[in-house]
Design a protein that fits this description.
five-stranded mixed beta sheet; five-stranded antiparallel beta sheet; alpha+beta
């Protein structure tokens, strides 16, 4: 039974505990608090506004297991296993097999799981955007705590510490964050980035709670929670593999003493001590601990338990591993396991968990090949075998289909298994394994098999198998609920089967493969092939047309986007003969061309058109702008390369179909149809869909599979993201117009769980899914209760077996993956038939030719029987000469071909013969040749030279390393010089110059130009002369030796003398020091022995050649004596017998003298050998052993007889041969014959004596050589003894020499670094000097740019010297953190007046009055340049200080390295002394003659010669002569020293005189410069000064401008005089007006007084009598006063304007003053003016009338 667990709200439960957990941050969490289930679990997505129910699909059961996931098996309370399947967590009861499910929160999946040590809680760490960690309570399964913000996308591992108070989580890419939580308070304790690569596991140490360990891809890292002054911190230490190859570490085990044992990819254990590998553990003989990856998992009963991917568990002795240490160079420690258990074949263990009971020995193991095992690791005799609790598919599910008549489901995968499930009873019925992985599966429809028990399975080797499923009840073999039996197997393809499909009538079966072929078979009791067609790509899916179509056609979907449609082949019409390929079968092709970018472009165009219409409504004139924007913003047309893969498709109407594409074309369903023109090449087609449907929220999530229920009103899609979608459709909607609202649920893994198989049950009540994550889920469309009511049963019906099935023989399976396919078998049969027909034709031709030959022979015979005049000649019988010539050519050609074919065999036989001859013809070095004298018993034999011993090869690696090390500093120095040179070549910064503005240029006169040219030439000559003189001085100073310098030739001679002089003490002295070039080691001693051996061998070989030459001369002597014996016989045949003298006996050749003849093989010997061999084969088997030795003896006797026969021929050749013409010259005189006889006998005797003489000389040489060789052997013995001594100390000496080489190398590197650092420091000093020079240049430029105005000059100086805060220029983006505090480092800035800016703002500076803006900008530019140089100078000083510190550090290191090198040299010297003392104790045999013994003390030779010294006489003479030479050299050196001393004194006196003269000349020079120039100047600069054309032009321009300005000034003077006169005139008139104005004021005052008095006197009378006239007069006077007031105001305004300095007052045209009004009784109103004198000096003062 499977249930989805409910969750309860904490508010609905009463609190039973008053314990409160208080966090450090002040949070309070009740101990019984739980989270609401409704807020956690992920629900299906339903399109808003649709009426699709939320429980459309209900999870029924999970049949899969993600066995490839790391650590995907944990145990709760010894009875519940938990593991991840897709996006749910499964809790499996071990005893009842009941499943419970917990869904993920966000629907993106689960990353990792963990269990609390108390097993009261378990952790689910999820995947997705900002995933969370949920701690569930067991067994209530309520969410207890939630941890947030621990990862960006996913968690890869979680782990509790030993007491369960802390939780460590490890995030995967991209953040890889390691977080330690106080999980009860839901707060982060520590956080740190683990590493920047994939991490597999993290865990706390069970022995030290402050230690953690993490491992992953190519690394292991050790963590420590350290207390610092700021609090706790995580400190990580990466493990260094050293000489061991870096490996991925899947598992590790912490040991009590802090060490860590980890596994490796190759099967050995690595023991880590600190952060380095202490030792590598392997099995005996260097074998790996496990075959494949290994992981340690427990420490039990003194054993370290490990498991491996080989399916074996081994126990290793812990004490041995803990104390293991490697003394070998490989770093490995060999040991044997204490216990071992093999879980099973094809088992790959990846994780293992133990039950929580004390002293438990039961473990549960995760098998990556799809199983969960129960193990007993007691390792006793009663230990039960491993038990497989559950078995699943391993890896992606490649095929899934359901029965059309029952609730059965079949699946297959690459794990080589086919499984059948009862998804109604939620059990697996049967599983069958094959020799290859399954890749496709289809359940035969009822039209093919009425019982519904036939499966068609395709495999990766191209084999298709028909499998029958039946209930074995009632049969003999009735074990199990179901049985799978092979009905037929055939191989139509040579590659993986990708799809199989039955035609809807069930008469044709089609199979598709990745070899781009489709094979058709007739369906029957036995499937027979019809033929195949080729398609332009690997087959993805086969889809037969539905019954509603009028034609039965097959739609072939290829992975590369090709779609092909072929009609159903008719077996009666298409009958292939030579091949099964159906070339005449018509087809239609479609090649998908992407339109996704075009669709998006059209959507964008529509959006912009709508926007454009809206803009037109608002404003008509923006139409053009809108068009322009439309063209710029349109997305481009994009077609992916390579093309997007095709996932699935199905028919909509005849000739039309829907396609689902992946990759960049996902997010749409494309409606396509075949075009009318099908003549084009399929690969060149560019077909486009005619319609499309947008798949909402799936732009990057392609549809991988599609299925429909029986009435096609529900379309179910499997998505690439692992989710399942359901679209309700209208009846008969083939165009999918109603495909709008949908229901979606994430169920498979979102990363790799692509849902490729979706099926509906035959009754549409179940939906089954299978993905690439290996999980299989079943859903029901109804609730569980409704489903049980509707079905009425709890198990699926298994088909019954066929009648007579038990009596049938098993079908023959195809086990060989390389077996021939059906087409290949057909081709081979066809080829065999063709060969048979060809042989038949050949035999007929041969028979016909034989008949013709017989007829021709009969004609020839008849022709011979005819009379001669009637016979035909051979020429006449030859019909055509061309036939004979052609036959001859063919014969020659065939002969040549046979020779070419046999040339290799001939060469091979020739080389083999040469090798045999070289093997059996033993060389002179192995055969002993003995030469006998003729008249004596002396003999001389060659030396036996054994094979040359292995020559000691001297390794040149150390020399090459030293040379490379010596050359390295030179190369680096060259690169450094090149870098300096490149830096010198870089562009120099421009030095600012004074601001000079020139408006125009003036042409110089010819005389001035000529003067400038000559001055330039003179300056150039002076410059060249100065440069030449500088070079000469540089050369002199370069060659000048330093103060303490010594002559390099003397230094080199002294070094050579010290190196070669050696120690003059005797070697027996305890303090004797061996010179470096005379030191001996094992390699040199071996080389010395090899040279001695080669010298001995050379002498022996040379003597062997002489002996062989003596043997050859004896053979030549025998031939000559034989000839003389024949001649003597002829002479004696002419003499009477009484005058005959007996000739000397002829010498014979013994076998020892010609040993090579014993192995010479002749044809006679070979014939005899063959006869003996044939006789041997005739013996019986019992006689073989007895007669085998007889056969060899007989063969040896035959060879000896042959040799004796040859020797007899040599010896007896003379007496046997007789001359036929014995009496031809009997007439010669007897005296002449006698003389001839004597002469021949004497000649024979002299030749024999001469040979004996040569033989004796050779014997003496051999004896002398034997004496020398004996001395050489004694020398070899001495060398061998010395070699043994040297080997004893070779290892120590080698270690010391390696240390010395390391120290020397380190010293050289430090010297080079020190030199490099000094060079850099010198360059920095030069750079600082250059920067200071540039600062001076900037200051000079500023001084030159200043004007004559002192006020402006002071202000500009203040501006120039002002220090402002500027944003620092950052060279690299990565330096932001380092430079963020640079703005605060202004403590060393002085001058409060110069600080004019605050942070983030620049100083507000304005150009002062009287200063040109261009000059002010130039001053600001110079200030920026000065500040840049100051910053650069500060940086350079900091760098120089750092380099100085580095130099000091290097000097200290160099001093320590020199001390250590001296110590190693002393140790090596001590070893050499000890070695020399041991060698001195060896006894050396030196044979001496008495005349070689000389004693200087007494004349008598003492009896004991031990205190004597053995010297070579030649060396003694050389030493005596050397003493005399040294005395002469000593006198010569004393004389040279005296001469050098006198010369040194003379040179010192000359140097003093020269210094005095130089000082006097310098004083005189300074006096002359002061007299001439008034100050000391640089004469070189003065000499190199040349005429400046610019200066001359400026002078000329100055003169011209002065003349022009004089004229202009004259004109202005005249104008000024005129203006002054006018000014005087106007001043006079203005004065008059002012006087008049004064008088007016006085008149006004008087009038006012009179008016007041009159008003008082007249009183009321005036008002009555002249009231009207008085009012008019008052108005008139008031108007007059108003006008006068206006006039006075205008005058005052004009006066004020004229009083301003430099102002020119112009009255506006509309402000003219009115004329003064005159009346009989004028009244002037008083108007007060402002104090201050008017300015009468202005030229244009206004004069008023």
């Amino acid at each position: 039974m499977s249930t989805i667990l409910p969750f309860y709200d904490a508010s609905e439960k009463e609190a039973t505990c008053d314990h409160i957990a208080i966090s450090a941050g002040g949070k309070q969490f009740p101990a019984d608090m739980h989270y609401k289930y409704e807020q956690l679990y992920s629900r299906p997505f339903i399109t808003p506004g649709s009426d699709i129910p939320e429980n459309l699909l209900n999870l029924s059961h999970s049949f899969g297991y993600d066995c490839k996931r790391r650590a995907n098996l944990l145990l709760l309370e010894d009875r519940t296993l938990i593991f991840i399947a897709g996006q749910i967590l499964i809790l499996l009861d071990i005893s009842t097999k009941q499943q419970k499910y917990i869904r993920s929160r966000n629907g993106s999946g689960i990353g990792s799981i963990g269990v609390h040590p108390s097993q009261e809680y378990f952790v689910v760490a999820e995947k997705g955007e900002k995933p969370i960690v949920i701690i569930y309570e067991y067994s209530s399964l309520q969410a207890y705590r939630i941890l947030r913000d621990g990862a960006e996308h996913a968690f890869s591992s979680v782990s509790f510490n030993s007491d369960g108070s802390l939780l460590a989580t490890l995030a995967s890419a991209p953040d890889y964050m390691l977080t330690v939580w106080r999980w009860r308070q839901e707060e982060v304790m520590l956080r740190c980035k683990a590493i920047s690569q994939e991490v597999y596991r993290v865990s706390f140490s069970p022995y030290n709670p402050s230690l953690l360990t993490s491992s992953g891809s190519g690394h292991i890292k050790f963590w420590r929670m350290a207390s610092t002054f700021t609090g706790l911190k995580l400190e990580g230490l990466i493990g260094h593999f050293g000489k061991t190859t870096a490996t991925d570490i899947e598992g590790y085990m912490e040991l009590p003493d802090g060490k860590v044992v980890s596994g490796s990819a190759w099967g050995n254990l690595l023991v880590w001590d600190g952060n380095s590998i202490k030792v590598e553990i392997c099995s005996k003989g260097g074998q790996c601990c496990h075959a494949g990856a290994v992981q340690p998992f427990a420490l039990e009963d003194g054993q370290l338990m490990t498991f491996g991917s080989d399916g074996v568990i081994r126990g290793w002795d812990f004490e041995t591993i803990n104390n293991a240490d490697s003394s070998s160079e490989s770093g490995k420690f060999e040991m044997e396991p204490m216990n071992e258990m093999t879980v099973g074949r094809h088992v790959c263990l990846s994780s293992i968990v133990k039950t929580s009971q004390p002293d438990s020995i039961v473990w549960f193991a995760q098998d990556s090949n799809g199983a969960i095992w129960k193990l007993d690791l007691s390792f006793t005799y009663t230990t039960p075998d491993p038990e497989c609790l559950l078995s699943f598919h391993a890896g992606p599910i490649k095929g899934l289909d359901v029965s059309k008549k029952s609730h059965l489901m079949a699946t297959t995968a690459l794990d080589r298994s086919v499984r059948v499930f009862d998804f109604l009873a939620k059990t697996e019925l049967i599983s069958s394994r094959f020799n290859q992985g399954g890749t496709a599966l289809h359940w035969a429809p009822p039209s093919v098999n009425h019982s519904g028990g036939l499966l068609v399975a395709g495999f990766e080797d191209g084999v298709v198998r028909l499998l029958e499923i039946f209930d074995p009840t009632g049969l003999h073999n009735n074990k199990g609920d179901a049985h799978i039996r092979l009905k037929q197997a055939f191989k139509p393809h040579n590659a993986t089967i990708t799809s199989v499909a039955y035609e809807y009538n069930g008469k044709i079966l089609a199979t598709g493969s990745s070899d781009c072929t489709i094979f058709f078979f007739t369906v029957g009791e036995k499937y027979e092939p019809i033929g195949f067609v080729r398609v332009p790509g690997p087959v993805q899916l086969l889809e037969w047309s539905p019954p509603s179509h009028h034609e039965n056609r097959l739609l072939i979907l290829c992975q590369n986007g090709h779609v092909v449609e072929v009609p159903c082949p008719d077996e009666n019409i298409l009958k292939p003969t030579k091949s099964y390929q159906l070339l005449e079968l018509p087809r239609k092709s479609f090649y998908f061309n992407s339109i996704k970018s075009q669709i998006k472009r059209e959507v964008e165009i529509a959006r912009w058109q709508a926007l454009k219409a809206k803009q037109q409504e608002e404003q008509e004139e923006h139409q053009l702008i809108g068009d322009k924007t439309l063209e710029e913003e349109l997305p481009p047309i994009f077609i992916s390369n390579p093309r997007s893969p095709l996932h699935c498709g199905f028919y909509s109407q005849p000739g039309q179909f829907w396609l689902s594409m992946g990759g960049s074309d996902s997010g749409f369903l494309y409606h396509c149809k075949f075009s009318e023109s099908q003549d084009e090449d399929p690969d060149q087609r560019q077909d486009k869909p005619f319609d499309y449907l947008t798949v909402l929220n799936a732009d990057d999530d392609a549809i991988c599979s599609v299925t429909f229920n029986s009435n096609r009103q529900l379309m179910i899609c499997g998505m690439h993201s692992g989710s399942i979608r359901a679209y309700p459709l209208d009846p008969g909607d083939h165009a999918l117009k109603s495909m709008q609202a949908y229901w979606e649920l994430s169920i498979h893994d979102s990363n790799y769980g692509h849902l490729r198989h979706v099926c509906c049950s035959h009754d549409d009540q179940f939906v089954l899914t299978a993905g690439d994550d290996g999980n299989i889920f079943s859903f029901n469309l109804l609730s569980h209760e409704e489903l049980q009511k509707g079905l009425g049963r709890k198990r699926a019906m298994v088909p019954s077996p066929r009648d007579g099935l038990e009596n049938e023989d098993l079908a023959q399976d195809i086990d060989d993956p390389a077996a021939d396919s059906i087409e290949m078998v057909k081709q081979k049969l066809e080829k065999d038939n063709q060969c048979q027909q060809a042989e038949k034709k050949k035999s007929d031709k041969r028979r016909r030719l034989a008949e013709i030959q017989n007829t021709f022979k009969q004609l020839l015979k008849d022709n011979l029987e005819l009379p001669e005049h009637c016979r035909l000649t051979l020429t006449e019988l030859q019909l055509d000469k061309c036939f004979a010539e052609q036959a001859e050519k063919e014969k020659t050609q065939k002969l040549k071909e046979v020779q070419e074919q046999m040339s290799w065999e001939e060469q091979h036989s020739h080389i083999a013969l040469n090798k045999l001859q070289q093997w059996f013809n033993v060389s002179l070095e192995s055969n002993i040749v003995t030469v006998f004298a003729i008249h004596s018993n002396h003999r001389v034999s060659t030396y036996h030279i054994p094979p040359l011993s292995s020559v000691q090869t001297h390794q040149q690696s150390s020399y090459s390393d030293n040379s490379s090390n010596k050359n390295a500093p030179d190369k680096r120095r060259e690169s450094k010089d090149q870098a300096v040179k490149d830096n010198q070549v870089t562009d120099e910064e421009d030095i600012p110059h004074p601001l000079v503005t020139r408006s125009s240029t003036v042409k110089l006169a010819d005389r001035q130009v000529e003067r400038l040219r000559k001055a330039a030439e003179k300056a150039e000559q002076a410059r060249a002369k100065i440069e030449k003189r500088k070079q000469e001085w540089d050369k002199i100073y370069t060659e000048k030796p330093k103060k303490n310098c010594e002559d390099p030739y003397d230094v080199q001679a002294i070094c050579e003398a010290k190196a070669s002089i050696g120690d003059l003490k005797l070697k027996t002295d305890k303090n004797f020091t061996v010179a470096k070039h005379l030191r001996m080691n094992a390699d040199k001693k071996k080389a010395e022995m090899t040279d001695l051996e080669g010298n001995i061998r050379e002498k022996q070989t040379e003597m062997n050649r002489e002996i062989v030459a003596l043997r050859d001369s004896k053979l030549l002597l025998l031939s000559k004596l034989g000839a003389l014996a024949k001649q003597l016989q002829r002479v004696q045949s002419c003499l009477p017998s009484q005058l005959h003298r007996h000739p000397p006996p002829l010498p014979t050749i013994r076998c020892e003298e010609v040993p090579e003849k014993s192995q010479r093989c002749t044809r006679t010997i070979l014939e005899r050998y063959r006869a003996l061999k044939e006789k041997r084969f005739q013996w019986t088997e019992q006689e073989n052993q007895e007669r085998a030795t007889d056969f060899l003896k007989q063969l040896e006797n035959v060879i000896e007889e042959m040799m004796e026969a040859e020797d007899g021929l040599i010896v007896s050749a003379a007496p046997e041969e007789r001359e036929e013409e014995e009496a031809a010259q009997l007439s010669k005189e007897e005296s002449k014959l006698l003389d001839m006889q004597d002469c021949l006998l004497e000649k024979m005797e002299s030749m024999v004596n001469q040979f004996d003489k040569e033989h004796l000389m050779c014997l003496q040489k051999v004896q002398m050589l034997d004496w020398r060789l004996k001395l050489g052997n004694l020398r070899q013995l001495t060398l061998y003894q010395e070699l043994l001594l040297l080997k004893e100390v070779a290892k120590t000496e080698e270690i010391l020499q390696d240390k010395l080489n390391t120290r020397v190398k380190e010293e050289n590197n430090l010297k080079y670094k020190l030199e490099e650092c000094k060079e850099e420091l010198e360059l920095k000093y030069k750079a600082i000097t250059e920067v200071r020079e540039k600062e001076k240049a900037v200051t000079k430029a500023f001084q030159a740019s200043l004007g004559d105005d002192k006020k402006i000059e002071e202000y500009l100086k203040k501006v120039f010297r002002r220090k402002i805060k500027r944003t620092k220029k950052k060279e690299q983006p990565g330096e932001e953190e380092e430079d963020e505090d640079d703005f605060d480092n202004y403590e060393d800035w002085d001058g409060d007046d110069d600080w004019d800016a605050v942070e983030g703002e620049a100083a507000v500076e304005e150009c002062p009055l009287g200063c040109e803006p261009k000059l002010f900008e130039h001053i600001l530019h110079l200030r920026e340049r000065r500040l840049d140089l100051e910053e650069l100078l500060t940086d350079e000083k900091k760098t120089a200080d750092a380099l100085e510190k580095e130099c000091d550090c290097l000097v200290k290191k160099l001093k320590s390295v020199k001390i250590s090198r001296k110590m190693v040299e002393d140790d090596l010297e001590q070893v050499n002394r000890e070695k020399q003392q041991k060698m001195n104790q060896l006894d050396v045999v030196v044979p001496l003659r008495l005349q070689q013994i000389e004693y200087d003390v007494t004349v008598r030779v003492p009896s004991d010669l031990r205190p004597a010294l053995v010297l070579n006489r030649t060396e003694l003479k050389c030493l005596q002569e050397r003493v005399k030479q040294l005395e002469v050299e000593k006198h010569q050196q004393i004389e040279i020293y005296n001469q050098a001393k006198q010369q040194h004194i003379r040179l010192i006196q000359e140097r003093k005189d020269m210094n005095n003269e130089i000082q006097s000349l310098e004083k005189l020079c300074n006096q002359l410069m002061m007299r001439r120039f008034g100050r000391e100047v640089d004469l070189e600069v003065l000499q190199t000064l040349s005429g400046n054309r610019t200066v001359e032009e400026l002078k000329q321009e100055k003169l011209l401008q002065e003349a022009a300005f004089a004229k202009e000034i004259k004109k202005w003077d005249i104008r000024v005089e005129k203006a002054c006169e006018a000014l005087m005139e106007k001043t006079r008139s203005n004065t008059e007006r002012l006087v008049r104005l004064n008088s007016l004021f006085e008149q006004k005052k008087e009038l006012e007084q009179k008016l007041d008095a009159r008003q008082k006197k007249i009183g009321k009378q005036l008002q009555d009598s002249s009231g009207r006239d008085g009012r008019h007069e008052i108005l008139r006077l008031q108007e007059l006063v108003r006008k006068q007031s206006q006039q006075m105001e205008h005058l005052n305004t004009e006066i004020n304007l004229l009083s301003l300095k430099g102002a020119h007052a112009h009255l506006p045209s509309h402000a003219k003053l009115p004329p003064l009004a005159h009346s009989h009784n004028p009244t002037i109103q008083k108007h007060l003016r402002k104090p201050g004198k008017p300015n009468f000096d202005r030229k244009d003062t206004k004069v008023y009338n």
